[in-house]
């Protein structure tokens, strides 16, 4: 765990903030390359202006969700100024997703005459998992969003966080450690599991994006694949989380959010497949008989 990468005097570069910045740059670079090759954005716009809408909405939503969920645990009630210290960590992905979605649809509404929602969403969701993967690595370096205890067949995957880490505090609270000043018991590095999944998902989405743009059909397919795949993965990996997070019954808030997100993904997927089938049928009818 390396919460601070380096410091210059009183100025500290936090690993979480650095990885967030790296993720943003990587996502922007990938989206820019895809846009230049396939032209998803209107000629009058560039990727940076599109992403600015998404980033502002995403960060606002992610921070607001974290503050609401952890108002007492993270001490926001006693020190409201901490709400604005996002470089220290404390962003909830699904809150960010909701905030980014609001900004995304506002952007689409403004430019609806030039491109479809699927044009924008397919491009955005090629870059999102790449940037998100960097963010999850930042979570690992920050020591947050850690997994449950690594026991039994999974013990070889365990990592131990240093004294006074979030994992040590939580395990001490649960009576698993004598005091939080001890290293944590080995836990599953679910942050790295998710980062690996997101990188593979990004590669798949880029492949689908290129394939659908070359064919000129099935727009929205990458969107559907992302929404369903990430929602399903997140629902499952939440069972391996060990940090204290809000729950609704036996499910975490992230799992509850995953269910409607997966349903929307299925809708996009079915719609894209049907659209491709109709286009193929129309092409067959217009082709002269052999």
Helical run tally: 8
Strand line-up across the major sheet: 1-2
Number of domains: 2
Mind summarizing the main beta sheet? 2 strands, antiparallel
How would you spell out the order of helices and strands? EEHHHHHHHEEH
Distance between the termini: 67 Å
Poorly predicted spans: none
Rg of Cα set: 21 Å
Structural class: mainly alpha
Shape: globular
Percent of residues in beta strands? Answer: under 5%
Question: What's the SSE blueprint?
Answer:
Elements: E1 4-8, E2 11-14, H1 15-38, H2 47-69, H3 93-110, H4 117-142, H5 166-173, H6 190-215, H7 221-237, E3 247-248, E4 251-252, H8 253-286
Antiparallel strand pairs: 1-2, 3-4
Helix pairs in contact: 1-4, 2-3, 4-6, 4-7, 6-7, 7-8
Describe this structure in words.
The protein folds into two domains: 4-148 and 188-280, no CATH class; 154-187, no CATH class. The chain contains eight helices and four strands; from the N terminus they run ββαααααααββα. The protein has helices at 15-38, 47-69, 93-110, 117-142, 166-173, 190-215, 221-237, 253-286, and strands spanning 4-8, 11-14, 247-248, 251-252. Strands 1-2 form a two-stranded antiparallel sheet. It has a two-stranded antiparallel ribbon with strand order 3-4. Strand 1 and strand 2 form a beta hairpin. Helix 4 (117-142) packs parallel to helix 7 and helix 6 (190-215) runs antiparallel to helix 7 (221-237). It is globular.
Report a brief summary of the structure:
Helices cover 61% and strands 4% of the residues.
Notable features of this structure?
290 residues, 8 helices, 61% helix, 2 domains, mainly alpha, two-stranded antiparallel sheet
